[in-house]
Design brief:
About 0% of the residues lie in helices and about 50% in strands. The strands form five sheets. Strands 5-6-7-8 form a four-stranded antiparallel β-sheet, with no helix packed on it. Strands 9-10-11-12 form a four-stranded antiparallel β-sheet, with no helix packed on it.
Length: about 150
């Protein structure tokens, strides 16, 4: 269901069945703006939900949803959530400062990957957990990577 007038957006996922039909699963049912949904091959999904001036990252594990960014990134906006096949999630978000940082949910905890005074944006995470993003160096955008040791 999409009602633009009252900004109600439901996130739907359409797993393809062998007989050519789709099974539709409604994941959200609220009065908030939900957008930027990404689904992995394991059936998990992440998306952004805007509510009361905040934009948070949510994870759906196939049956329940969890707010990953609540209490982590202060009162500012999150953006660009991505999920890999292992269920690790990355996104950019304000760290109560004036710039965007990169955050990682590893399946149990959220870790702030970057902590600097410039913007870090559009993170991606591969199947092995390597994170790649753009960071502003004061002159132009550079590419950065990080991986768990």
């Amino acid at each position: 269901m999409i009602k633009i007038a009252s900004t109600i957006l439901a996130i739907l996922f359409l797993p393809y069945l062998a007989n050519g039909a789709y099974t539709v699963t409604q994941v959200t049912n609220n009065n908030y703006s939900n957008y930027a949904a990404v689904r992995n091959s394991s059936g998990q999904a992440v998306w952004l939900e805007q509510n009361n001036g905040r934009t948070d990252v949510f994870l759906w594990n196939g049956s329940t949803k969890e707010n990953l960014s609540d209490g982590v990134t202060g009162s500012s906006s999150c953006a660009n959530p991505q999920i890999n096949s292992s269920g690790q999630v990355v996104w950019s978000g304000r760290d109560n400062g004036t710039d965007s940082e990169i955050f990682l949910y590893d399946g149990s905890t959220v870790t702030q990957i970057t902590d600097n005074s410039t913007n870090d944006i559009t993170p991606q995470i591969d199947a092995s957990g390597v994170i790649t993003w753009f960071g502003w160096d004061g002159n132009d955008w550079e590419v950065y990577t990080a991986q768990d040791q």
